[in-house]
Design a protein that fits this description.
With 272 residues, this protein is an alpha/beta fold. It is built from ten helices and nine strands. Strands 1-3-4-5-6-7-8-9 form an eight-stranded parallel β-barrel, surrounded by six helices. Helix 4 packs parallel to helix 5, helix 6 runs parallel beside helix 8 and helix 8 packs parallel to helix 9. The protein binds L-Erythrulose (LER) and manganese (II) ion. L-Erythrulose (LER) binds next to loops.
Length: 272
């Protein structure tokens, strides 16, 4: 398994669970100095970062791009793949497609988290799930064209009412028959929704495509009460070789959260 740390370039997401903020070059330098394998990027949109600049920063620091988030589509533009209005859904799909085009050449998958939206009176749950399924089906094909993958993230009940657990997520993807969409298992959301983290990961099995490495309170691993040893054991059991990516609050400050994360990552790898 490999380590990654999040970098947000989205001012509207301030206060959110990202370690580094605003300065991509500085984030890459610190990530390298601390020994991370990769960064995970949350850009304001598909055109916000020049791919040549990003390539140079990654190469100069020996880093990979673990994944690219699309949450700015929601926090900045109020787009959602399950919006009541068809034109808004189309714009949301187009936004994610463009992020796929940006991320593909870096071999990075694209995250669908808050862009999944939620059901409400105007869009009852079965309709929202149909909209979301249709979108994931189209994004699966687009990801194929750009030789990358899509990561669908079940969120806790306070952020969506569509899919909250990994087993519901795996069943949802299985029903769609998609080839390039996997689950993003965020240990913070899982701490709220799952009976047992390790069992949930084992049950999700081959659908596990990415992991957000966060403690119970969404602080860096080791700053809450999650036991990461059984989590890593379960991931090994299912043959997971992807990233443990720190999507955590930058507390007490970004560098300390990053340093705590890499130490916890090494310890979990040694024990799990
Ligand atoms: C995104 O990765 C996530 O975990 C969500 O909680 C963001 O709203
Ligand atoms: Mn997450």
């Amino acid at each position: 398994m490999k380590s990654a740390v999040t970098v947000s370039l989205v001012p509207e997401a301030r206060g959110g669970p990202f370690v580094f903020w605003d300065d991509l070059a500085a984030a890459c330098r610190t990530a390298k100095a601390l020994g991370f394998d990769a960064i995970e990027l949350f850009p304001p949109g598909p055109d916000a970062v020049d791919p040549r600049d990003l390539r140079e920063l990654l190469d100069d620091n020996g880093l990979s791009l673990a994944a690219v988030g699309t949450g700015a589509g929601w926090v900045k533009h109020k787009l959602s793949l399950t919006a009541a209005d068809g034109a808004t859904r189309d714009k949301a799909l187009d936004f994610v497609k463009k992020v796929i085009e940006f991320a593909g050449p870096f071999g990075a998958p694209v995250i669908i988290g808050s862009m999944q939206g939620r059901a409400d009176d105007a869009v009852p749950k079965p309709v929202a799930l149909r909209y979301l399924g249709n979108a994931l089906f189209k994004l699966d094909e687009h990801a194929g064209d750009y030789d990358t993958r899509v990561l669908y993230e079940p969120l806790n009940r306070y952020e969506t009412n569509l899919v909250n657990t990994q087993s519901d997520g795996a069943a949802f993807l299985a029903g769609l028959g998609v080839q390039r969409v996997a689950l993003l298992c965020d240990l913070y959301h899982m701490n709220i929704e799952e009976v047992n983290l390790a069992d949930a990961l084992r049950a999700a099995g081959k659908y596990v495509g990415h992991v957000h490495f966060a403690d119970s309170n969404r602080r860096a691993a080791g700053m809450g009460h999650t036991d990461f040893t059984p989590v890593v054991k379960a991931l090994r059991e299912i043959g997971y070789a992807g990233y443990l990516s720190a999507e955590v609050l930058p507390l007490p400050d970004p560098e300390a959260a990053a340093r705590q994360t890499i130490e916890a990552f090494k310890e979990a790898m040694a024990r799990g």
